[in-house]
Amino acid sequence: MRHGVIIACRMSSRRLPGKTLAPVAGRPLLWYVHRRLESLGVPLAIATSVDPSDDPIAEYCRREGLVCCRGSLDDVAGRMLDAARYLELDAFARVNGDSPFVDGRLLRQSFRLMTAESLEFVTNLVPRTYPYGVAVELIRTRTLTELLAETDDREDREHVTRAIYRALPRLKHRTLVRSGEDLSHHVLTVDTPEDLERFRAFVGGEPTHWPSVTWEHAIEQVPAPRRAA
Fold first, then answer.
1. What end-to-end distance do the CA atoms of the chain give, in Å?
2. Which of 80, 83, 196, 229 could link 45 by a cystine bridge, Cβ 3.0 to 4.6 Å?
3. C-alpha to C-alpha distances, 41 to 24, 35, 84, 112, 203, nearest whole angstrom
């Protein structure tokens, strides 16, 4: 089975416009997300939109030699599927461009599980026991294609895995649940100006240690916001 990773990003975030290329120690936020995933040794693509506001993302990818697939701004699921087909993926991990602490260890585990058990979906979000920003959603390309063909709800197009979670009882899937303490109240995404400043403080002046640093270390070193239970 051919697995890969697709990073979804755009410049028109409502809470933090331009966050995808926001500078952190001289590098854009997207660099930190992509860099952490390179060691997986699987195909990677950036999925952004054809909206002119996302031209800077496409230009950054061109300069850095990254695969960039562009599609509809609002049909995010379609955009991700187009990228998966371009990379000829049987399954893809959906990663958000505001998640610099995405965990390659969990993604590798999900790749192994999907192959060994012929799964259609692997997630760690139901129930959520990992911090926000340490998500796993590994999706069979064929499964998402079929589910989207069954609906004309625009919300299912804007929110990539909405149709999958609705169909979860009839899908062959697995959930990764963290052993030990439930850490789902921690937030490690870069979604607000405050999140960005916190991440900059954590990285410091030079990201030479990236991506070996773990999200567990981040929780210990930099106080993170907590979501209400």
1. 38
2. 83
3. 25, 11, 16, 14, 24
Sequence-ordered list of residues with C-beta below 8 angstroms from that of 225, at least 6 positions apart, any chain: 187, 194, 195
Count of CA atoms in the C-beta half-sphere (13 A) of 43: 19
Gyration radius of the chain over CA positions: 17
Cis peptide before 43 (omega within 30 of 0): no
137 token code pair: 């959603």
Judge whether 193 and 163 are in contact, CB under 8 Å: no
CA distance 77 to 148: 8
Instruction: Delineate the domains of the chain, giving CATH numbers in brackets.
Output: 3-221 (3.90.550.10)
Cβ atoms of 57 and 20 closer than 8 Å: yes
Whole-prediction pTM: 0.94
CA distance 111 to 120: 11
- Token pair, residue 61, equals 């990818």
229 residues of the chain, pLDDT tens digit each = 999 999 999 999 999 999 999 999 999 999 999 999 999 999 999 999 999 999 999 999 999 999 999 999 999 999 999 999 999 999 999 999 999 999 999 999 999 999 999 999 999 999 999 999 999 999 999 999 999 999 999 999 999 999 999 999 999 999 999 998 999 999 999 999 999 999 999 998 777 788 888 999 988 886 656 665 4
